[in-house]
Amino acid sequence: MKKKERKSNQTIRRHFSLYHWRIVNMFLIAYDILAVNLSFFLALWLRFDCRFSAIPEEYLNAFLYFAPMYTVACIAVFWGLRLYKSIWRFASFNELLRVVCATGITAVVQLLGITLLFQRMPVTYYFTGVLLQFFSVLGIRFMYRFVLLLRAWKDKDTEQVPHRVMLIGAGAAGQMILHDIVRSKEINDRVYCIIDDNRNKWHRFIEGVPVVGGKEDILSNCKKYHIEKIYLAIPSATAEQKRDILQICNETGCELKSLPGTYQITRGQITVQSMKDVAIEDLLGRQPIHVDLDEVFQFISGKTILVTGGGGSIGSELCRQIAAHSPKRLLLLEIYENNAYDIQMELKDKYPELDLVVLIGSVRDSRRVDQIFREYRPDVVYHAAAHKHVPLMEDSPCESIKNNAIGTYKTAYAAMAYGCKRFVLISTDKAVNPTNIMGASKRLCEMIIQSFDRIVKENRTSELPVLFTHGEDGYTNQPRTIPEGAKTEFVAVRFGNVLGSNGSVIPLFKKQIAKGGPVTVTHPDIIRYFMTIPEAVSLVLQAGTYAHGGEIFVLDMGSPVKIDTLARNLIKISGYKPDVDIMIEYTGLRPGEKLFEEKLMEEEGMRRTQNDLIHIGCPIPFDTDVFLKQLQQLMEASYDNRKDIRRMVADMVLTYHPIQENARETDDAPVTRLHEPAFARS
To answer: Which of 39, 295, 533, 583 could form a disulfide with 132 if both were Cys (CB 3.0 to 4.6 A apart)?
Structure first.
């Protein structure tokens, strides 16, 4: 019964809508009949000093006899140019152009028709009549839109107090934003002033809004007009220019939004909805990093790619970008099933044709790793699986060694054993002169990669030890030796912190701000290198195309950023004042944490690649054979959960200097020295 009533109501509304527009069209036709005739009659009346009795009879008779014919001609022309089919509440330049065309055509009809058939009329009759007809026909149509606009303004004033907006940018994008705010009933904003650095625009108006000055006038005009929101509409601005403007805007405490890019202007898509919240990366002040995607496409296309740790922040972005470059098959290995499920659903939705295989397992499990390589035979491996949280690894140092160093060794060994063409290790700037066990374990990963590369080039792959912890019995899947002639290329890519990654300070700061603070910063002077996740991953992919084996690629991450400055900017763009609305607390450096990270060790040199943002660090020489023996002992010690694991790592990584109070070693723990240090001083 309810369905029938609903259907009946819909039918009534549809019929009412059709009936309503028929009435509108009938009204417009009746109005046009009156307007076109009255326009030329008024032209005749004005010509003779507004005195009806002064109009000569021949002119009046010619007008009256020609009026019915002219009326029919006008209605036909108006109908043909669809002046009765437009939705006038959305009238724009297109409708204006059609009214102009209709007026031009009917003017010719009037001129030729009345002159040839009846009487040559005064020149002012033709000229004035056409003008009066144009404004009367156009006026009634655009009046409807004007009334709706006035009603929208009135509704904004009476129903809700509109947000007071400052618009930065008086160019094409700014005008589109302003136009959208003015015409939209749904947007509860009103622009009170415009900022633009072009002095020629100062003290002038755009749609009634004053252009009040340049960026140096932002603060004063925010106070003058009591601004609540600032819209930055200069999509062509460089990163440095945008940073400078946003830093000024940050001091106002206003809500900030900006346009994401210039491509929307050419498509006419600039609206208030195009604006996005200002992100913290907008304040880093550098241009976005662009990568030659053709090189990446040629390298990845048609290959089977394995990403370990594929559910993490870096690993998942690797999967996204690889999926976009037509791999033959994408393998995703992840130990945490929730992350694996999320990225699986995302990739299946976006790339339904992608041959995606999601595998649950750990790189510490030799048998699982071996099974995956034996079954799927990947061509390229991106090894992103790792423990990355510095303080957590300080509490569990043996887990860092098991997962990062030994997990890397097992995965690299399987890659070599099953003919993988390239193995790319995701490393970190914390591997440079590490003071924490996580950074030291990642340096061990780099040394493992360099060792494998050297063994391959010297054709000694059969001498590589097999590291496993399952015992001899029942462990027969993994090859005991690697076939001679293995050609796997092993490289590492080293970069710093990525904005928004798991464990990054940005998500932590946002949570703390959402709770009302305080925002915790370890030290007022601590600095870090930052890059967005897509930028870092795109450079990793391109670095992989440059590899020949043994390189440690170092990504240029620009200038370092103070974490304290980052926290304060994030508080400001969230609409609060640091140390007033949201307090900042300094908690002290965490175990193993440094004030600053380095991208290269002092001993390493630097070579450039085709991409100015990708450099190659020259390998530090060390005794590979001694290192591999030490690594085997280190594995056994880590699985025994030895307390002196840091000292053992320090024997292998001479640049590792653990802070003594964080060593957490007991007096009864044996201090083990593994042969001689693996590094050979050059």
So the answer is: 39
